[in-house]
Amino acid sequence: MESLAEKDMIACPYNKEHVMLRRKFQQHILKCREIHKDTVQLLVCPFNNAHLVPEPEFHQHCKSCEDRKIIVQYQTSEPAVLHADTRHEKIEADENWDDDEVEDYNPQVYCAQANIVREPIGMFPSERKAFIKEEERRRRGDNYDEEEQGKSKSRAESRHTPYNPNQQRSKRSYK
Fold first, then answer.
1. Domain identity same for 19 and 64
2. Is residue 40 domain-resident?
3. Smallest Cα–Cα separation from 138: which of 102, 103, 108, 114?
4. In a domain, 56, yes or no
5. Mean pLDDT per segment of 10 residues, for the chain of length 175 residues?
6. Domain boundary, last residue among 26, 45, 71
7. Which of 11, 51, 113, 148 has the fewest CB atoms found within 10 Å of its own CB?
8. pTM for this one?
9. What SUPFAM superfamilies does the database record attribute to this sequence (predicted)?
10. CB-CB contact of 65 with 51 (8 Å)
11. Distance from C-alpha of 22 to C-alpha of 28, rounded to nearest angstrom
């Protein structure tokens, strides 16, 4: 009776002195194939890529390959029968994703229209203040616009205008 270690070991078809674990076989074959590509010509079995056979034995191997029965069984088995409960009618979609007339999705426009909290990221301080003010106005809705207009008029009337050198000033007469 073979021990567990002997079952798991396999010899390399390129060099019989190379013995390795089955799980390392594919990795080893890639290396050995490159080393012995000019000296040893082996053909790959169509039923199992791990079977590398010399050309004179290839035809006989294909007839008696252990993995052949899996393919033959698949080819000769009856196709699966579809019952009435597994079939369904073709589903027609109402939308056409290939339509070019639809506008592209713009997340900034959507966020500005929807009730989504946005934050001023990567803005200068003056831009940030204006953005926050606009966001407050947007969040509060139409009622806020009317209140803000009333407040801004009273503030504007009480404020003095800053100095503008291009503005014409009235001439005062000093006595």
1. yes
2. yes
3. 114
4. yes
5. 70 90 90 87 88 91 89 81 72 78 82 82 91 86 57 54 56 53
6. 71
7. 113
8. 0.40
9. beta-beta-alpha zinc fingers
10. yes
11. 10
